[in-house]
Design goal:
Layout (H helix, E strand, L loop, with lengths): L25 H14 L2 H12 L4 E3 L1 H7 L3 H13 L3 E6 L2 E6 L5 H9 L1
Antiparallel strand pairs: 1-3, 2-3
Helix pairs in contact: 2-4
C-alpha cells in the first residue's frame, strides 16, 4: 500500500491573472440564471418568437397550439413559465388568454450575449 503524496503549496498569484472589470453581482446572477432557464427550451423560444411575430406583438394562446404541435395544456404550461420569468404578460379576454412581450424583458439577456 502506497502512502499519499504531499503536495506543496505554491504561489497561486503567479498563474492567476487579476480581474480587469467588475463581475456580475450574486443577485443579478440569480435573476439572470432564472431568466436563462426559462428561455433554455426550444418550445419557449419558439413561443416568444411567435408572439413577437404576431400583429402588435400579442397572440392568443389558442393560436399558439397548432404551430407548436403540442397540446393546449403543454403550451399553457410553457406560457406560464415565460410569464412568471417576466418575458410575457397575460391578459384574459372572455375565455381566451392573450400574451404579449414585456418591453425590454429580453434586453438583459441580449446584453449578456453581446458581451460574451
Amino acid at each position: 500500500m502506497s502512502t499519499p503524496t504531499m503536495l506543496s503549496v505554491t504561489d497561486v498569484t503567479a498563474c492567476c491573472a487579476p480581474l480587469t472589470r467588475e463581475t456580475i453581482p450574486v443577485e443579478q446572477a440569480i435573476d439572470l440564471a432564472r431568466a436563462l432557464k426559462a428561455l433554455a427550451d426550444p418550445t419557449r423560444l419558439r413561443l416568444i418568437s411567435m408572439v413577437a411575430a404576431s400583429a402588435g406583438e400579442e397572440a392568443c394562446a389558442c393560436d399558439l397550439v397548432e404551430p407548436t404541435g403540442l397540446g393546449q395544456p403543454t403550451v399553457s404550461h410553457h406560457l406560464k413559465i415565460l410569464t412568471e420569468a417576466g418575458f410575457l404578460t397575460r391578459s384574459q379576454r372572455g375565455t381566451w388568454a392573450y400574451f404579449a412581450l414585456v418591453p425590454g424583458a429580453l434586453d438583459s439577456v441580449a446584453r449578456l450575449l453581446v458581451s460574451a
